[in-house]
Backbone:
């Protein structure tokens, strides 16, 4: 259903019993159901806020942090690309050792797979037989460095209702042990009576 009412899905790919359909928001849509987030819906959600605990969902980036690297992607790493002493020695900026020793230059670089820490997958993360959201294809929409459709810069600020699952509380512990994997289906367990 779009904001205008029910939508008749237009199939783009039908194969192996699965249908990939055109977006109900039209052929230029790049954000899917985020179209339901409007200034009005955000105002409505913000009007419900009451004082209470806040939950910071940010994740600190650190060496050895959890990441999904099962397909050989790079772990989180940070290193110096320039140091004050190294800049004097190698003179990469071409200003000479005297000036380089006055202006102590440091620089660093970071690499990581995008599945490091928290993240939101874009609508082109997974496709079906070479077709992605709204009919995008690598042949037409994937450039040398990134997709030309569906990037995060198109997404609105996500201010909406949500659901937070406290898996540690489900297992009646304060914190899950390192490397705990969630089962595909989490079934609530009956609570033990307190003595």
Residues:
């Amino acid at each position: 259903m779009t904001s205008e009412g029910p939508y008749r899905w237009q199939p783009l790919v039908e194969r192996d019993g699965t249908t990939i359909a055109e977006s109900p928001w039209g052929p230029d849509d790049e954000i899917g159901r985020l179209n339901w987030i409007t200034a009005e819906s955000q105002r409505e959600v913000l009007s419900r806020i009451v004082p209470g605990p806040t939950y910071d969902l940010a994740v600190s980036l650190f060496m050895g942090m959890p990441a999904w690297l099962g397909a050989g992607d790079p772990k989180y790493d940070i290193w110096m690309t320039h140091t004050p002493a190294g800049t004097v020695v190698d003179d990469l900026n071409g200003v000479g050792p005297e000036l380089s020793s006055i202006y102590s230059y440091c620089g660093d670089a970071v690499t990581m797979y995008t599945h490091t820490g928290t993240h939101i997958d874009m609508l082109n993360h997974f496709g079906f037989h070479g077709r992605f959201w709204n009919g995008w294809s690598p042949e037409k929409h994937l450039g040398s460095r990134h997709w030309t459709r569906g990037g995060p810069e198109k997404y609105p600020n996500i201010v909406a209702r949500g659901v937070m699952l406290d898996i540690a509380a489900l297992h009646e512990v304060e914190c899950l042990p390192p490397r705990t994997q969630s089962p595909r289906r989490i079934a609530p367990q009956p609570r033990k009576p307190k003595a």
About this structure: Strands lie at 11-15, 18-21, 77-82, 107-111.
